[in-house]
Write a structure and sequence with these properties.
Shape: globular
Keywords: Hydrolase
Number of domains: 1
Organism: Amycolatopsis pigmentata
Largest sheet: 7 strands, mixed
Strand content: 25-35%
Pfam family, one: Ham1p_like
Helix content: 25-40%
Number of strands: 7
Protein name: RdgB/HAM1 family non-canonical purine NTP pyrophosphatase
CATH topology: Maf protein
Family: Belongs to the HAM1 NTPase family.
């Protein structure tokens, strides 16, 4: 078997399918390469599992673009809710917002939660999905002004701050995206300069 199969010798830029420029900036900082946000309508299956969602989306993105591409999806799971909202968190956020999630969880005693990023990469060698997961807790109120999505309501284990209360550097040092990026870097040979 060819040991270089599936490895990239040099990559200095890549497209991330997202309408979120902040997410593209985060990935650029984490990867150490240029990451351009590219808005593309993709097939999004209905699943709580971010890995299933990303696998289908990155297959669709590569078939449309025919060039190396990244797609990510993130899930927030409140353990007391048996997997919800999971990969549907973006829909929860767009319909009720972070405060709405907190309002729905107001009577939940077990506020333990996990966040998972699935990062799909596709090129001529096929599709690979890499994940990063962090344990933490759901807050009882929104805290902080930074970040996006659920950053103001999730506190990673081992800290007292929400992602929204952290600097970008603090967040990027410990985030679930960081963990997924590290797996991507090992898996496809992208090295952070």
């Amino acid at each position: 078997m060819n040991p270089n199969l599936g490895r990239i010798s040099v990559i200095d830029r890549i497209s991330l399918i997202t309408g979120n420029e902040g997410k593209a900036r985060e990935y650029a900082a984490l990867l150490g390469i240029e990451v351009s946000a590219l808005k593309e309508d993709l097939i999004e299956i209905q699943s709580l599992d971010v890995v299933e969602v990303v696998k289908r989306k990155v297959e669709d993105a590569y078939s449309k673009l025919q060039r190396p591409v990244l797609v990510d999806d993130t899930g927030l799971v409140l353990n007391a809710w048996n997997g919800l909202p999971g990969a549907l968190v973006a829909w929860f956020l767009s319909s009720v917002g972070a405060q709405g999630i907190l309002d729905m969880a107001s009577e939940v005693a077990d506020r333990s939660a996990t966040v998972t990023t699935a990062l799909g990469y596709a090129d001529t060698n096929g599709v690979r999905v890499f994940t990063g997961t962090l344990e933490g807790t759901l807050t009882t109120e929104r805290r902080g002004d930074g970040g996006f999505g659920y950053d103001s309501i999730f506190v990673p284990a081992g800290t007292d701050l929400t992602f929204a209360e952290m600097s970008s550097e603090q967040k990027n040092a410990i985030s679930h995206r960081r963990l997924a990026v590290e797996e991507l870097q090992k898996g496809v040979g992208i090295s952070n300069r």
